[in-house]
Amino acid sequence: MKVKIKPGKLEGDIDAISSKSQGHRDLILGALCEEKTEIFLNNFSDDILVTVKALENLGFVIERKENSFLIKDRVDVKNPQIDFKDSGSSLRFLLAIGNFYGENVKYIGSESLSKRPLKELIEELEKNNFSFSQNHLPLEARGYFKGGKFTFRGDISSQYISGILLAASKSPFESQIILKSNLESKPYVDLTINELKKFCIDVKKMENSYKIKGGNLKSPGKLYVEGDWSNASVFIGANLLGSKVKIRGLNIDSLQGDKEILTIAKKFGSKIFTEDNILENSKADIRSMEIDIKNIPDLAPVLCVILAASTEKSRLINAKRLRFKESDRLFSLCKMINDLGADGKIVGDSLEITGKIKGGHVNSFNDHRIVMAACLASTFAKEEIIIDGAQAVEKSYKNFFEDFKKLGGNFVCYR
User: Fold this and answer.
1) What CATH fold (topology level) applies to the domain 2-16+227-414?
2) How many CB atoms lie within 10 A of CB 137?
3) Residue 292: active-site member
């Protein structure tokens, strides 16, 4: 799908969509319980549907309602096959869990997902009772999670650590995760630990390790997934650039790492207003800034566009992790900035941004966050913006363009 957007500010109010990060975790933990669990979400993104389908393929009986998933029961399946499509979270969270429910499990996914890092997670699982046909998709897995010690570098994917913690919650054996250096993207692991508490599983955190003993999961019955700060950052960014959007349903005390967008907005001079579960922030004067995105890689596309509202040079640093997203996001962001008339330059693991966005024609690289970032750029661009592959946004925000239109976004779609 191709989208052509005319420049213009946004104004109005919307509901924050349910957090994809929390939704994945709650659905998996709900399935691991013996009791029924109902997970309430107001938005079923493609990635969430991948996790639901994966659980169904493992034998779970899930009733899909208008705004929730009720996990009711499980039936036995033989040699299940799971298609993760393009969802890295679903893959890494379920890789150690699937064999609870099948002696031999086959995992497949998109070409893009087969290129995303998995080797270190597989190597650690193979030290602990698993065997895999190869270290990337497609692959077959045998074995059974029995706990043990798992050692990772701190700059490895936080989803590896979360995946082990989720599997360990089901196992009656003790598991220990040891980090060889400080953990990057730590807020995502903190979120996993917080969701485990809701299911009566405690994780002991030490300086560079985690200990967990599972086997006693208890369902809370019903869980309401809070609003997603990653996707809401698009509209918080739009407000920084002069739009007037009010967002309902964001938890100001959330453990989601991308709530950091508020701290960054304040550094630009934006004032934050919260009242009656509604958040709004004021316009700010965008100036040169260096932002470390080591722990907030999903904010990079929004921040990249915000910084390109100034003619001064800015930098996103510690951006190595961007190379292993839905696209090589370091490259695709740089290309987007240049195609929109500003000047982007990759320097090592950093992205330098100079000059203001004007408008232009960009490729989404099948990356949902590139689509949203380009739409954000239209709120202060001088010329129209065309996005190829705009349907990629459905990976995390299925009704994004509906909300964008509701707020005054002026665009046309071409198939």
Assistant:
1) UDP-n-acetylglucosamine1-carboxyvinyl-transferase; Chain (3.65.10)
2) 19
3) no
- Catalytic, out of 298, 339, 367, 403: 298
- Is 227 annotated for ligand binding? no
Model pTM? 0.94
Give the tens place of pLDDT for each residue, 330-363.
999 999 999 999 999 999 999 999 999 999 999 9
Q: Is 409 annotated as a binding residue?
A: no
- pLDDT of 415 over the 80 cut: no
Per CATH, the homologous superfamily of domain 20-211 is Enolpyruvate transferase domain (3.65.10.10)
Rounded to an integer, the average pLDDT of 77-99 is 95
176 annotated among ligand-binding-site residues:
no
User: Is 91 a residue whose pLDDT tops 80?
Assistant: yes
CA dist., res. 367 & res. 362, Å (int): 12
Find the mean pLDDT for residues 234-240: 98
Is 325 annotated as contributing to ligand binding?
Answer: yes
pLDDT band at 234 (very low <50, low <70, confident <90, very high): very high
